[in-house]
């Protein structure tokens, strides 16, 4: 099973580059290496880190910590998702209603 962990934070105005650099550094030193890692940015100095793991949904997995309070405007948001396939369909569902 593939599990994706999403971590999203919003930097204090003007500190987006600093938060992005911090997230890159933290993602490099996780206690274990994910199958895949992607770091994205968005308007309003938001940073998103997605890591993919070959693990059960409820597995203990390393996550990025909270940045220093002075760097962010609110608590970090975290989500956990289970992959159901790359085309949006569960592979176990079969080929469709006719087989």
> What would the principal axes of the Cα set say about the shape?
elongated
- Radius of gyration (CA) equals 16 Å
What's the total helix number? 1
Largest sheet: 4 strands, antiparallel
Structural class call reads alpha+beta
| Beta-strand percent range | 25-35%
Topology order in helix (H) and strand (E) letters = EHEEE
Task: Provide the residue-averaged pLDDT.
Answer: 90
What is the CA–CA distance across the termini?
Answer: 24 Å
Q: Indicate the percent of residues in helices.
A: 10-25%
List the uncertain runs.
93-99
User: Could you tell me the number of beta strands?
Assistant: 4
Strands of the widest sheet, in order across it, are 2-3-1-4
Describe this structure in words.
The chain is of the alpha+beta class. The protein has one helix at residues 16-28; strands at 2-10, 36-42, 46-54, 77-82. The longest helix has 13 residues, at 16-28.
Topology:
Layout: E1 2-10, H1 16-28, E2 36-42, E3 46-54, E4 77-82
Antiparallel strand pairs: 1-3, 1-4, 2-3
Features:
single chain; 4-stranded antiparallel beta sheet; elongated; about 100 residues; alpha+beta
Brief description of this entry?
With 99 residues, the chain is an alpha+beta fold. It has one helix spanning 16-28; strands at 2-10, 36-42, 46-54, 77-82. A hairpin with a 3-residue loop joins strand 2 and strand 3 (46-54).
């Amino acid at each position: 099973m593939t599990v994706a962990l999403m971590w999203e934070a919003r930097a204090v105005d003007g500190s987006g580059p600093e938060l992005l650099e911090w997230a890159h550094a933290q993602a490099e030193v996780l206690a274990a290496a994910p199958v895949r890692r992607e770091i994205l940015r968005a308007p309003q100095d938001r940073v998103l880190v997605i890591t993919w793991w070959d693990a059960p949904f409820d597995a203990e997995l390393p996550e990025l910590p909270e940045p220093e309070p002075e760097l962010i405007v609110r608590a970090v948001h975290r989500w956990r998702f289970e992959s159901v396939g790359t085309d949006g369909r569960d592979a176990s569902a079969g080929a469709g209603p006719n087989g």
